[in-house]
Amino acid sequence: MEAAGVLCWAAAILAPGIFWVWHLLGRMKHQVQAGLSGRGGRALLVIAHPDDEAMFFAPTLLGLARLGRQLFLLCFSAGNYYNQGEIRKKELLQSCDVLGIPPTNVMIIDSRDFPDDPAVQWDTERVASVLLQHMEANDINLVVTFDAGGVSGHRNHVALHAAVRALHSEGKVPEGCTVLTLGSVSVLRKYISLLDLPLSLLRAGAGDVLFVLTSREAAQAKRAMSCHRSQLLWFRRLYVLFSRYLRINSLHAL
């Protein structure tokens, strides 16, 4: 009887937690399916610098691959702020290989129009024009990029959002093409890794998409980030350990 009482007591304590985990996992599956119905299609990730794809978007890329999407990447600079452009282009291709994007599907723009410089505001119309041409040339039906906060507030990130929003508001996005933007979060949420999952799930709205990596996929994301050797300063190594963006991506539809 005493053992039975202990079991009943333990069940009473654990049941709410078990139910909550089940509820969260159920909502996670629902959110992914709600925002991205069906399998297949051609998805384009639009980034500003080499390493954005791994540092911020690895869960999205691996999640889309899981859903059978063909992956493309458009990078608007070579990351030449410290005159390391040639090195960083090679690192980007290595990272993309780890994340499942073939080199033929990677376009890196190395132009004076789009310098890697947080002090320079990229021209919205020029960015939008290049982006639209790339979307049409590759028959893209899903575009993913930064939101208005740019995750880190970097002007180059924000410029990409301004361009895709301009295309969307002007009705120039090709018919049948969905646009998703990566949600920026507070500094506290940014560095608590998987502990941010409950809040991410609770804040997910209709049409939003949430990608959460498994342990195996998280290791793959870290391998992709490790390809960017020129950028792995001590603070970025801490980022790899603690950032939610290497485990969780919350995406919002325009």
Automatic annotation (TrEMBL):
Reaction equations catalysed: a 6-(N-acetyl-alpha-D-glucosaminyl)-1-(1,2-diacyl-sn-glycero-3-phospho)-1D-myo-inositol + H2O = a 6-(alpha-D-glucosaminyl)-1-(1,2-diacyl-sn-glycero-3-phospho)-1D-myo-inositol + acetate
Its EC number(s): 3.5.1.89
Positions in coiled-coil regions: none
Membrane topology field: Single-pass membrane protein
Record family assignment: Belongs to the PIGL family.
Function of the protein: Catalyzes the second step of glycosylphosphatidylinositol (GPI) biosynthesis, which is the de-N-acetylation of N-acetylglucosaminyl-phosphatidylinositol.
Protein name: N-acetylglucosaminyl-phosphatidylinositol de-N-acetylase
Organism: Pipistrellus kuhlii (Kuhl's pipistrelle)
